[in-house]
Amino acid sequence: MKDLHMGVIESRFADIIWQNEPISSTKLAKLSEKELSWKKTTSYTVLKRLCDKGIFQNNKGTVTSIISRKEFYSMQSEKFVEETFGGSLPAFLAAFTSRKNLTPEEVAQLRRMVEEYEEES
Question: What's the CATH class of domain 8-69?
Fold first, then answer.
Protein backbone atom coordinates (compact mmCIF):
# COMPACT_ATOMS: atom_id res chain seq x y z
CA MET A 1 0.00 0.00 0.00
CA LYS A 2 1.29 3.43 -0.88
CA ASP A 3 2.40 5.27 2.25
CA LEU A 4 0.76 8.68 1.95
CA HIS A 5 0.31 11.12 4.76
CA MET A 6 -0.99 14.66 5.08
CA GLY A 7 -0.89 16.91 8.09
CA VAL A 8 -3.97 18.80 9.27
CA ILE A 9 -3.19 21.93 7.26
CA GLU A 10 -2.33 19.94 4.14
CA SER A 11 -5.66 18.10 4.55
CA ARG A 12 -7.58 21.37 4.68
CA PHE A 13 -5.78 22.53 1.54
CA ALA A 14 -6.44 19.19 -0.18
CA ASP A 15 -10.14 19.48 0.66
CA ILE A 16 -10.22 22.83 -1.14
CA ILE A 17 -8.80 21.13 -4.23
CA TRP A 18 -11.13 18.12 -4.02
CA GLN A 19 -14.18 20.36 -3.61
CA ASN A 20 -13.28 22.58 -6.57
CA GLU A 21 -11.39 20.43 -9.05
CA PRO A 22 -10.46 20.95 -11.73
CA ILE A 23 -9.19 24.29 -10.46
CA SER A 24 -6.63 26.70 -11.80
CA SER A 25 -3.60 27.20 -9.59
CA THR A 26 -4.38 30.93 -9.55
CA LYS A 27 -7.92 30.36 -8.27
CA LEU A 28 -6.59 27.82 -5.76
CA ALA A 29 -4.14 30.41 -4.40
CA LYS A 30 -7.00 32.92 -4.04
CA LEU A 31 -9.22 30.39 -2.24
CA SER A 32 -6.34 29.45 0.04
CA GLU A 33 -5.78 33.08 0.87
CA LYS A 34 -9.46 33.48 1.71
CA GLU A 35 -9.99 30.21 3.61
CA LEU A 36 -6.55 29.60 5.15
CA SER A 37 -5.06 33.13 5.19
CA TRP A 38 -2.15 31.86 3.10
CA LYS A 39 0.11 33.83 0.81
CA LYS A 40 0.30 32.74 -2.80
CA THR A 41 3.80 31.30 -2.29
CA THR A 42 2.59 29.10 0.57
CA SER A 43 -0.18 27.66 -1.62
CA TYR A 44 2.27 26.86 -4.40
CA THR A 45 4.75 25.28 -1.96
CA VAL A 46 2.11 23.01 -0.39
CA LEU A 47 0.64 22.19 -3.80
CA LYS A 48 4.07 21.12 -5.05
CA ARG A 49 4.57 18.95 -1.97
CA LEU A 50 1.20 17.22 -2.50
CA CYS A 51 1.95 16.77 -6.20
CA ASP A 52 5.33 15.23 -5.30
CA LYS A 53 3.47 12.79 -3.02
CA GLY A 54 1.32 11.73 -6.00
CA ILE A 55 -1.99 12.95 -4.59
CA PHE A 56 -2.54 15.80 -7.05
CA GLN A 57 -1.18 16.98 -10.37
CA ASN A 58 -0.67 20.45 -11.76
CA ASN A 59 -0.84 20.30 -15.53
CA LYS A 60 -0.26 23.69 -17.18
CA GLY A 61 -1.85 25.52 -14.26
CA THR A 62 -4.84 23.21 -13.86
CA VAL A 63 -4.88 21.22 -10.63
CA THR A 64 -6.67 17.86 -10.45
CA SER A 65 -6.50 14.87 -8.14
CA ILE A 66 -4.69 11.65 -8.89
CA ILE A 67 -6.22 10.07 -5.78
CA SER A 68 -9.80 10.89 -4.82
CA ARG A 69 -10.68 12.09 -1.32
CA LYS A 70 -12.55 8.85 -0.64
CA GLU A 71 -9.64 6.72 -1.85
CA PHE A 72 -7.11 8.71 0.19
CA TYR A 73 -9.04 8.43 3.45
CA SER A 74 -9.82 4.76 2.79
CA MET A 75 -6.09 4.12 2.47
CA GLN A 76 -5.43 6.04 5.70
CA SER A 77 -8.11 4.08 7.57
CA GLU A 78 -6.79 0.78 6.28
CA LYS A 79 -3.25 1.73 7.31
CA PHE A 80 -4.44 2.73 10.81
CA VAL A 81 -6.31 -0.56 11.35
CA GLU A 82 -3.33 -2.52 10.02
CA GLU A 83 -0.77 -0.77 12.21
CA THR A 84 -2.87 -0.47 15.36
CA PHE A 85 -5.03 -3.60 15.35
CA GLY A 86 -2.99 -6.02 13.25
CA GLY A 87 -5.42 -5.55 10.39
CA SER A 88 -8.37 -6.81 12.42
CA LEU A 89 -11.52 -4.81 11.77
CA PRO A 90 -13.40 -6.66 14.56
CA ALA A 91 -10.63 -5.68 17.02
CA PHE A 92 -10.93 -2.06 15.87
CA LEU A 93 -14.72 -2.08 16.27
CA ALA A 94 -14.45 -3.70 19.70
CA ALA A 95 -12.04 -0.98 20.84
CA PHE A 96 -14.14 1.76 19.28
CA THR A 97 -17.41 0.59 20.80
CA SER A 98 -15.90 0.02 24.24
CA ARG A 99 -16.01 3.79 24.82
CA LYS A 100 -18.73 4.92 22.42
CA ASN A 101 -22.12 3.35 22.02
CA LEU A 102 -23.36 2.91 18.49
CA THR A 103 -26.75 4.35 17.65
CA PRO A 104 -29.42 2.02 16.24
CA GLU A 105 -28.93 3.79 12.88
CA GLU A 106 -25.19 3.08 12.95
CA VAL A 107 -25.80 -0.58 13.78
CA ALA A 108 -28.29 -0.85 10.91
CA GLN A 109 -25.83 0.80 8.55
CA LEU A 110 -23.07 -1.62 9.56
CA ARG A 111 -25.43 -4.55 9.01
CA ARG A 112 -26.28 -3.24 5.53
CA MET A 113 -22.58 -2.87 4.73
CA VAL A 114 -21.88 -6.47 5.77
CA GLU A 115 -24.87 -7.75 3.79
CA GLU A 116 -23.75 -5.82 0.68
CA TYR A 117 -20.26 -7.21 1.08
CA GLU A 118 -21.59 -10.77 1.37
CA GLU A 119 -23.73 -10.29 -1.73
CA GLU A 120 -20.71 -9.08 -3.74
CA SER A 121 -18.51 -12.00 -2.61
Answer: mainly alpha
